[in-house]
Amino acid sequence: MIFDIEKIRTDFPILGREVNGRPLVYFDNGATTQKPKQVIDAITRYYADMNSNVHRGVHYLSQISTDAFEVTRRKVQAFIHAKHEHEIIITKGTTEAINIVASCYGRPFIDAGDEIIISAMEHHSNIVPWQMLCDEKGCKLRIIPMNDNGELAIEAYKSLFSERTKLVSFTYVSNALGTVNPVKEMIDIAHEHGVPVLVDGAQAIQHVAIDVQALDVDFFAFSGHKMYGPTGVGVLYGKEELLNKMPPYQGGGDMIKDVTFEKTTYNELPFKFEAGTPNIEAGICLGDAIDYIEGIGLDAIKAYEDELLAYATSRLSEIEGIRFIGTAEQKSSVISFVVDGVHPYDIGVILDKLGIAVRTGHHCAQPVMDAFDIPGTVRVSLAMYNTKEEVDALIEGLKRALNMLL
Ligand code: C6P
Asked: Where are the domains positioned within the chain?
């Protein structure tokens, strides 16, 4: 498949706008990606043609919106190669997906004295829900350490297992470092101990082809808004046998079969975990984002982004006093750095004046910053629509910023 960058860029209307009198250069894709007109149009179409609640009405509009919502579920199933469509739970995003596992797997199956393994490079969304569980149940967190390059120490990981280990949860790609973890190897190690694994796929789903069956992962979480889709929607994949033994997350409409004041019976999968009216438009249009990605092809996207990552890393190396935070051998789409004597925030503010959007700070991964003994970084996170010319603009901007600040 030909990767037509000009065509791709014209699909994203926002890339044509100016910010502070300069063409927008958007390098904050790890926070959220921009949306192609195929997704934007689908959102308008939903409200213009189909708006109605799902799974409830016998009337025409409710049926077509329900069908469209369920089509997305099947698209997600195919996209991540899940065995069953009812293993796809539509959530608000990665955060909610992880919280569902912490509540509905953690509360019933993890007890006082049990242990949960997470890694040193987790986003707060994959730390705090487990800490809350530990506070409630008296279980403990064990942390997989990382080396100075930001790579997880696999031998140390192996030594963390004990007969009390009940769950492992780690990120596929670090949002703060760009490290791509050896996910399959880590899942296999956990399974040798009979321990299920949750993988946080928030920073992987838009860059790497995912096959949950080949990975044999037990739970997999991601967000729509980081994969060119709408905000307010995400996915929890879970193996059928695990989801079936878990209680519902919230009570309300749609998650029940029968309600009397004496007793409620719960709906089957996936609806048991989807109480209340979902974000219907986002759920439906997540399917359009998947179509968009598949129309280009994740292999082509990955090849292009890897080349851009190498180019950006090499150009940034020209900057005097730069220190990359996260220099793992396997990286994807994220470059984090600090510059001697300059606060990351000041760089971000000046780049913004030049129309260049980067993220600065701890990136909701404060323990990563603590491990490197820094308050934060400047983070450049790439997407398929970024170009070498934009990287050149970043380098120019950075040089100007440093001239002013140093
Ligand atoms: N990281 C970033 O700028 P939500 O907010 O639920 O869509 O995703 C949470 C989340 C979970 N795990 C990882 C690895 C993530 O990167 C994120 C979101 C954004 O890096 C916003 S803090």
From this structure: 5-31+297-405, 41-294
Q: What is the CA(406)–ligand 1 centre distance, in A? A: 32
Residue 397: CB partners within 8 Å, gap ≥ 6? 350, 351, 354, 356
* Residue nearest (by alpha carbon) to ligand 1 atom 17: 202
Q: Ligand 1 centre from 190 Cα, in Å?
A: 24
Burial class of residue 265, CB neighbours in 10 A (0-12, 13-18, 19+):
exposed
pLDDT number for residue 57: 81
- Which residues form the catalytic set? 364
Choose the residue to mutate in 175, 222, 380 for probing ligand 1, maximizing ligand atoms within 8 Å of C-beta: 175
Which residue in the block uniquely carries the two structure tokens 């703060």? 176
Of the candidates 207, 165, 166, 164, the residue with the CA atom closest to the CA atom of residue 183: 207
Task: Pick the closest to residue 323 from 153, 93, 94, 148 (CA basis).
Answer: 148
- Tell me what pLDDT residue 1 has: 64
Q: What is d(CA 46, CA 38) in angstroms, rounded to the nearest whole number?
A: 12
Give Cα separations from 142 to 98, 219, 311 (angstroms): 17, 19, 37
What CATH architecture applies to the domain 41-294? 3-Layer(aba) Sandwich (3.40)
- Paired strand residues for 171: 200
Q: For the chain, list residues with pLDDT below 50.
A: none
Given ligand 1 and candidates 89, 124, 171, 203, which is best to mutate, with the most ligand atoms within 8 Å of its CB? 203
- List of residues 6+ apart from 10 with CB closer than 8 A: none
Please give the angle made by the CA atoms of 29, 35 and 39, to the nearest 5 degrees.
Answer: 150
In 122-141, which positions are buried (b, 16+ CB within 10 angstroms) versus exposed (e)? bbebbbbbbeebbeebebee
Three-state SS for 370-395 is HHHCCCCEEEEECCCCCCHHHHHHHH
Q: With respect to CATH, is domain 5-31+297-405 assigned 1.20.1440.120?
A: no
* Coil, strand or helix at 356: strand
Q: 166: Cβ below 6 Å to ligand 1?
A: no
This prediction has a pTM of 0.98
| Coil, strand or helix at 62 | helix
Q: Provide the pLDDT for residue 256.
A: 87
Rg (CA), the chain: 22
- Asked whether the beta carbons of 309 and 333 are under 8 A apart, the reply is yes
Residues whose CB is less than 8 angstroms from the CB of residue 386 and which lie 6 or more positions away in sequence, other chains included? 26, 27, 29, 308
